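<purpose> Linking amino acid order to shape
<body> The protein record starts here
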Amino acid sequence: MTFNCVIVEDEPMARQLLTQYIEKVAALELLAAFANPVKALDFLRDKHPDILFLDVQMPEITGIALLKILKKTPVIILTTAYSEYAIEGYQLDVTDYLLKPITFERFLQAVEKATQKVTTLAALEKPTQPVPVSVPTPASSTTEGYIFVKDGNKLVKVRLNEIMYIEGLKDYVKIHTPKGKITTLQRLKVLEQQLPATQFFRVHHSYIVALEWIDVIQRDEVEISDQMIPVSDTYRKAFKEYVEQLQIGKH
């Protein structure tokens, strides 16, 4: 999927840098780059990009004022040298806020948030279709032996039987495998929906464990490869019942 972008930035160096960053990401396509916000406004009345990189302080009208004028607002990433504009920006449903000078790593983080939001909004706008009887339930959400997760601007294949446990860290998750850790910009709940419930179980707000890799189960924690994973009150009863069902099924 390609995401169309527009840059509105009056500083030539910053505009050039954002252009270069966008060109490095295969999933992004730059429609136009403007130094003048008034000309950008005329363009945005007819064109509707997925993502708008918008400077806050510009001549004639500010980026915040431009946002308030637009009737159809793209997913917004603000760019500025002044952090005090962040609060007002987020009140206008800005997706991220890039403080100059902008590094490529920070740019990628913002783009990841923006593309996820574009994808989510697009899915919500689709008309609801009747669900066929043959559609698998969430417990069997994948029949493959692997998933793909994003790592920067590339997708990494992760085999399910190599996942020991998954740790959630706000907008990131760490997938722990015998070979090491894989960090991806994704929410734990979203990743949970891709995993088969016959192999994985959420035991804590911040942890999903692979049943195959559990060495010891205690009341408040499970042990996986010498690592103690907490089992919270919220998930303890359901986890206990699930384990008991597995024991019954083996007899």
The chain has seven helices and 15 strands. Helices lie at 12-24, 37-46, 63-69, 86-91, 104-125, 188-192, 233-249.
